[in-house]
Amino acid sequence: MKAIVLVMLAMFCGLLMAEISPFTLVGEGSFAGKLGSYASGDTIVFVTKPPIPNTIRYKYSHDGGLTWQVSDVLFPSYGEDFSPTLSYTPNETIVSFKSALQNMIAVSPNGETFNDIIPMYSNTFDNSPYVEKYNGQIKRFSLDLPYPEKIKVGGEMQMFPGIHPDDPDEFIAPFHYTDTELNSDNEPEYFTGKDVLNGIVRTNNDLYIKQTGEGENNGWPIFNSPVVIGGMAVSIPPQYPRDLIFRGGLVENAPTIDISTGSLREIAALVGPPSYDPDNIIMVEVDGGSFSGMWGKVQAPRRVFTDVWPNYPEGTTEPPSFRNNFTVQDTVWTPLPSNTCMGRVNFVNGKLWIKGRFAGNQTWVAAGDIEIIGDVLIYGTEPPNGPNNNGVSTVDLISERSIRLKYGYYNPIDTIREHTNMGADTDYAAPAGGGTWIYASLYALGNGGGTPNQDGVFTFEYQHPHGSIPATIINVPTPSGPIPTWFDWIDLHRNRWPQTTSQPWPANLDYPWYNPLWPENAPYLERGTANIWGSIFQRRRGFIHRDYYDNNHHSNGVWNPGMDLYGGSSSPDEGYVDPVLGINMQTRNYPGAMGNGIGYKKNYNPDPRTKMSIESYPYYMDPLCIWKLGLNLSNHTDVLGMESYYQKPYILVPKDKCFARKGERAYYSLNDQLLYADLDEVTDISPSTKGDGIIRSIALSPDSSPLVYQLAEVDSTFS
Class of 2-17+28-145+629-715 per CATH? Predict the structure, then answer.
């Protein structure tokens, strides 16, 4: 059975015998408890948000509550869902509240009338941000939260469905998260009539929607779950049917949230070399709770030469037109020892190539890119089924750069060229299809430092295919008869490489090594369906499908991948037959994959089991928090609004927060977490309170030592 245990209990039995006068109602409305009240001697003050629009009720008594005075704070209201807090001194009173999502304060110099309302220039989902002034500095104690408490749906306020139904201490993770809805070309990615999203959408900037001729909503996208954005909804055309599109509600101008992998590195099990090198490749295949792998080391460049003839391999008896001079890099592969990977965080100091069938809770983190080289399946669920009732296995793939669906690779185990992540549309019933299956949440967290194409994205490899002449065997005439001869790098024996301004690389010929399986005369365009069960977190929107030709970046036939220029069109109509060897140079769709572009159809589905904490951690540890959420201490500046000086990461649902100050010493709590501050020097003393219940109150003794009252629900058996 459950019992309530008081960690600290003070009982004054004499009071039980005293005569208790009838209670008198002195106020009603939303009340922040101790954070919204003050009592010392005969002075009692409290603030509430009464059910009166645009009004905060401030009540005070200087005779121990025998008589009360009222001073209402009137403010321009854009939302009434908050509980105001109070910082009271005889010289100045500050009432902190929210108007919509904006934190504002009302200031009274005499504790009676409020003439000044000051914006803090900082949006928050905290319904009771506490603001005080100490030594002339405005300071705030607030919570960084992923979602608001309520959201307007169809004109009515409802509770935001952000708490996990199977674990009320946890938040549901967003299904779609970005820093910005711009793509790698720094252009908007629009949700259109073909998009129907069934999970929470969260972006730190504007969201772009466009009416098209597709779908079931008159050409508009459908968001069946809440959409929370740091900017505004930007529409083409400008007017849009809000409630028909955002069926789970829309919150604009929301506070931003960010992700950091630092906490994962601290506890991760290392796979591969101990230090980072961009030339490290760790190839992993997971089988249940263990993995096998190879370590690829990209070698230093070596110089090579190719003689050039215009009709190579014909005409080689004549002197070459010129000689190419360039460098190439080989990769040397070494087997890694097999090991367990279940129930833990696994970290790679480089690039990670990964596939397999996973069991238990697993998190894989890479300091470099993650390349998905095959299906990511989980025990307990078979495609095309969802993992809703799978209580066995979860996977998180986290890259500190980007995540890509790999086009192909040379398998270092058997040296066979493998095309990966491709399939026919009819392999599974729509909306699923053949291609790739990923039962995992994907995190592409690279920070490009202002360079858009260096930000983390989830995308696919080889987005602008062109044909190239493959290695071939030709019977070369000799006096003793024809001899079968192997010819490779044929394009490099016909054209200037590296290209020059006067001798550019041909627009209709694939750029050397841009295709990971180069050279390939008929590379694949449409590759099937990306079937994903899990959340996708990325800095900006990665491409998952492209047109044959990028009309936003006219290459005019020029090849310069570093500048996002990829020669001519990839259309099959641009194909031709090589006049020397008779090889058909024509792009094509993967057999059974239909469409008129490049890449994948989307079959994205939220995994309802996904929480904002990482599952793959030992049972004795706190839930891993990679989101920059939790308890925030900040100072007000005239230029920046609120500037944080301490942030305590914490990912669980808030149950209570408390504050107490005496002079320079202050204590702040959230659930069972406790901080001590001496001015702005903060010490986390949570180990002394963690696990002992929710902190419900903090009081300071004459020597400023804290008296902490905690309330815990524990299992108890009574005879």
Answer: mainly beta
